[in-house]
Here is the input.
Amino acid sequence: MSNTSVPEPVASFWKAVNEHDESGFLNAFTADGVVDDWGRVFTGPKEIKAWSDKEFIGARGTLDIESVHEEGGHVIVRGDWKSTHANGMSKFTFETSGDKLTKMTIREG
Here is the structure.
C-alpha cells in the first residue's frame, strides 16, 4: 500500500520508520507524546528513544502496511512488522494533534 493512502502525519511517520530515520521518528511526536507498546507506556522523547533504540528503529523495524482506516478520530494501521526484536501482524493506533502524533498504541494485528 502506498503512503498516499495513509493520512498525514502518519504517512510521514511510517516513511521515517521504514527508512530507519531516528530523528524523523522522534520528531513525529509531540513533546509529551506517548508510545503504548502492549501496555508498556513510554512518555516523551527520552523514554521513546530508549524504547526505540532496542525495539523499533534500533531493531531495524519496517512495516508492510496492509490496511488503514480512521475510526473515532484515530488512524488505525495494520501490517506485517519485521525487525530484529519482534515480527508479525501488528495494529498501530495513532492519536494526532495537528501535524504531530500524540500517542501510538501497538497491539497484535
Q: What stands out?
A: The chain is about 25% helix and 45% strand.
